[in-house]
């Protein structure tokens, strides 16, 4: 059974009790790209026993009961920082183009790599190295245009982003006549938050071996043609791996309320970040009703619904509303 | 380039001009399962030169300008028939259980087969022969229950239906305390209509080699987060074959109105009945907008939308309404 | 505080213990229009102490713990009856045209009325008497056509139906080339069920004064632009009276999960059949987010959602999914 | 028939040909609140014959063929301006609290008013003067908090906004821990754009008396229970006046494609900015189908859909997708 910790991870309570900034830095130094000073300051202002009185530190530790709260504190700390500090955080990010060259370089020779290991890994998964010469030229040019227009590097924290995502994002921001530096800076800070959170989850764990971060996945199927829960519908849950192939995780038959019969589809250690797919056997369900007129090649038969689980601490409710001729889904609660 | 005719097909105008019932029967005899008398009567009442005056026949031929109209005339003829005739049409269908045995039998010895070739082919595709012993027992039992309860055989004209579809349909009709013989008969007639139409399309063609039956497929993508057409979204269209693998047919990038840039995705000879899939690159699209906050593992990234094209004479509009957190589709117009 | 009983109503347990068919008939005789024999037979076969042994009667009484179960038993009894009996039930209904004349007649002279009091009341609310001469002619003609085509009177149990509903229904059934007597009979039986249930609810009550039949109304608002519950949204609930004016029943502000803060909006004696309206202050909600770009005349501001509560024993979940540019609702669970 | 001009409006071509900044200012001085210098600079850089060569001016005039293009040019001019200039534009706006006091003041004595006439009119319609003492206190306090937090006044260009909208917006921005000055500034610029556009439309017209700005309203109804256009559905269009009462504008019956039978519902001079309501007679439509099981108090009967038309130059497509148990709408195209 998978657990949340690996040998290089530090338990949250141990982290919060570290007595010096250098030790804190040794663990979380890479959270904000090439910005150890910022992490040091966060430690000094909030957790350092020489600059805070004991009761303040105690209160802070008592408040930070999980990794998401630690992240929230850091995020607020970024928000309260002067705009020069914020811009510095953004500008410490290598531009995606440089990363790209480096990924190629590391494929030749690890020693040449000058981007951080964290950054390389995130980007390495992105498959950017497969750019065609033309795409690389577009990419380089748009990247420069972005920096010129908004005075910050282009930052995108999409895990496993394809080159299409990155190129689409760059082109979209540049071609939008309404986009403003203010919005791009706000958005880049958002991306930096996300990177910090993703990195925190890989560096910090819990003292007591915990089964997951508390997130879970639920489902519900409504039959909008008849105004009732879709009872007795077969559903399968698949997970994609990084190479875009999928494995079935579980299968279900909905209960009389149109829900999964035994609680969440995923919870605890099973609930892991990634790309998933529901398969709903909608055609089989509607064949039960003579009024549905299911025949020939049905308009809807197998409904495949791809979705991503992003935050391991959250509840994801991913329902289906369907008739034989229409369906919709949304992130519910 | 695929055309609509094969050597065994008869052109519509030639069909309508056939001078005797036996010739008409030779071509369309199998349209209604084991019911040649019915076809004969249809011919006699509508097209036979000895029982209709010339001007009536002329009017009928002038009205029936395509295969769907021929089908509609036959459907109306069924509807106007006395209920005994209708029940006879239904009861001429082999029960699905017998078909099943026969499919197995034909795999051993063609001569033993007593079901019609048309019926065998439709069913053969259904993969019913892969029933487990338990499933076969359920199937046989439910089939008998159905006949006892409703006094007609269970008829299901789903092309390539899986055993799950058939079992779900049978179980649903039997367990529904509100189902009535009236409804089941009405529904069985609907299935018989569908079978007749599918068979007509394989037996009748046009004199002038025609590129398709006139149906076409269109698409439209709306961005419901921003209230605008989703311009510049990549879309791919795939077609499934009978073994559930798919081939890309075409790819598109939406225009400024969120539509395909060069008219229908499929039309003419390309528009063929079957299972298709749209892939919409929704995540890439929303990455264009800083306000979308696309990061980490996006909730929606690649939207896969499976749909069936059933009637080769119809317009299928299959749009997508999407935000980064929800989407819906429907058969539009 | 409203209760479920009135002096003329009979408690369920008392009803089920009535010793003779004539007493049972005295209470439920009008459930099926002009069909006392049918009610009598239902009593004789299920509840009569001289034709059933004590343990069977005991089991029946033990099963029928509420009015909906009584209704279900009657419905199944109809379903199991021979088709001649079913047709007799349908043909006992006065045609809507006759009702119309009678309603006019009763306005002149009560004595002339020959339709049942139950039927007159249901129809009287329908406002059919306001037909123009032309509409009355259409109505009469279509009614006759319907009877000729399907051999049963046209039955529609829509409470407070407008003349438009009735005319639309009649025209639709007649103009549908695919409609069949089987379907119309099945549907007419469904309407007769509905009438019986509505009449039962007005004739039977409970011994212990009960606050409502157990139904309740809930709500949920999801923000599909941001993928979160819509917290802090103002909602109002109105009820329409028969003259199409409405009164505010309650107002709410959604909690952090987008739900009503104190459970069901209506339950117990408050949950009564009728037409309601939610008002959702969607524009005010989205003005909270700078990313929503609410300005000028917002596309969506006040969302009004009219819905009917029909079955006093059911749960009605009536949610809203909304972005600043789109919304949807459905009967949920 | 209403036209686009009033005596105080200036035709676009005349405006673009004005020979001096002071004349240009006399007409458009109020477009950006208390920022005549900005308007003057726009004129000088783009239209002034002494600072631009003839061919440049000619090209500019040739490009600006309608009022929306003029607005776009101004918006881009704002976007290209240094951030100090942008902040100056924002800070020239009176705070909403001051406006409020002034509106009260003007009700006592016009001479005391110090806010611009444009601003007063927009705000006057907002009904802010009806704040209770408690609300006024909240309002004043939050307004101050907003200015302290983001260093700009709170700007909201919602026409006819209620006090609830303004209070909700203020509270939302202040309570959002993720909101940033960058985003608020970007949003405030967006509001300032909107104000400029609304004022332009009231100050500039066309030489040739034009029937409307080109915008139009269309509709489409899809029946998602049956997968077909909703043909023959009655629809009514209402317009709200400022006192929240409504007048019917037109009524329609959908054609066989589920669309309005004679093109746009509104176009030309009829297409005016404001709050509208569609009424869809969904219950009557579904009563046409026996499979819909419409009876009792239908869940959906009359669907009321309120929407705002904001930009007189745009196409608004406002469709309905409906089953007897669900519906959705969106701004389409």
Topology pattern of chain A, helix = H, strand = E: EHHHHHHHHHHHEEEEEEEEHEEEE
Oligomer: homotetramer
Tell me about the largest β-sheet of chain A.
Answer: 4 strands, mixed
| Rg measurement of chain A, Å | 24 Å
Number of domains of chain A: 3
| Cross-sheet strand order for the largest sheet of chain A | 5-4-12-13
Structural category of chain A is alpha/beta
Largest interface: A-B, 68 and 68 residues
Distance between the termini of chain A: 28 Å
Give the DSSP E fraction of chain A (strand runs of 2 or more residues): 15-25%
The CATH top-level class label of the largest domain in chain A: Mainly Beta
Please mark out the parts of chain A with pLDDT under 50 across 5 or more consecutive residues, or reply none.
Answer: 104-113
Q: If you consult CATH, what is the topology of the largest domain in chain A?
A: Immunoglobulin-like
The CATH superfamily of the largest domain in chain A is Transthyretin/hydroxyisourate hydrolase domain
Mean pLDDT of chain A, as a whole number? 89
Task: Give an account of the 3D structure.
4 copies of one chain form a homotetramer. The first copy, chain A, has 333 residues and is α/β, with parallel strands linked by helices. Chain A has 3 domains: 10-90, no CATH class; 95-204, UraD-like, CATH 1.10.3330; 216-328, Sandwich (Immunoglobulin-like). Helices cover 41% and strands 17% of the residues of chain A. Chain A binds chain D through residues 72, 75-76, 79, 83, 177-178, 180-183, 185-186, 189-190, 224-227, 291, 299, 321, 323-326, 328, and chain D through 72, 75-76, 79, 83, 177-178, 180-183, 185-186, 189-190, 224-227, 291, 299, 321, 323-326, 328. Strand 13 (326-330) of chain A pairs antiparallel with strand 13 of chain B.
């Amino acid at each position: 059974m998978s657990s949340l910790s690996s040998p290089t991870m530090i338990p949250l309570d141990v982290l919060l009790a570290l007595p010096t900034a250098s030790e804190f830095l040794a663990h979380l130094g890479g959270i904000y790209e090439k910005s150890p000073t910022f992490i040091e300051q966060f430690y000094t202002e909030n957790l350092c026993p020489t600059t805070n009185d004991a009761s303040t530190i105690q209160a802070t530790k008592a408040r930070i009961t999980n990794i998401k709260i630690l992240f929230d504190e850091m995020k607020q700390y970024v928000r309260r920082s002067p705009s020069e500090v914020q811009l510095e955080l953004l500008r410490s990010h290598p531009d995606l183009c440089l990363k790209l060259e480096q990924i190629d370089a590391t494929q030749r020779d690890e020693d040449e790599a000058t981007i951080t290991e964290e950054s390389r890994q995130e980007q390495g998964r992105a498959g950017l190295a497969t750019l065609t010469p033309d795409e690389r030229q577009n990419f380089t040019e748009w990247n420069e245009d972005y920096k010129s227009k908004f005075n910050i590097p282009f930052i995108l924290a999409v895990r496993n982003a394809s080159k299409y995502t990155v190129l689409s994002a760059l082109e979209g921001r540049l071609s939008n006549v309404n986009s403003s530096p203010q919005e791009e800076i706000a958005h880049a800070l958002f991306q930096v938050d996300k990177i910090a959170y993703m990195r925190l989850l890989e560096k910090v764990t819990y003292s007591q071996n915990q089964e997951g971060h508390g997130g879970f996945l639920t489902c519900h199927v409504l039959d909008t043609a008849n105004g009732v829960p879709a009872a007795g519908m077969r559903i399968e849950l698949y997970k994609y791996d990084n190479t875009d192939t999928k494995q079935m995780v579980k299968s279900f038959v909905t209960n009389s309320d149109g829900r999964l019969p035994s609680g969440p589809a995923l919870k605890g250690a099973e609930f892991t970040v990634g790309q998933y797919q529901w398969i709903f056997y909608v055609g089989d369900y509607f064949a039960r009703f003579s009024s549905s007129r299911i025949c020939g090649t049905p308009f809807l038969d197998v409904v495949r619904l791809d979705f991503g689980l992003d935050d391991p601490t959250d509840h994801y409710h991913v329902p289906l509303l369907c008739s034989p001729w229409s369906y919709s889904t949304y992130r519910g609660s």
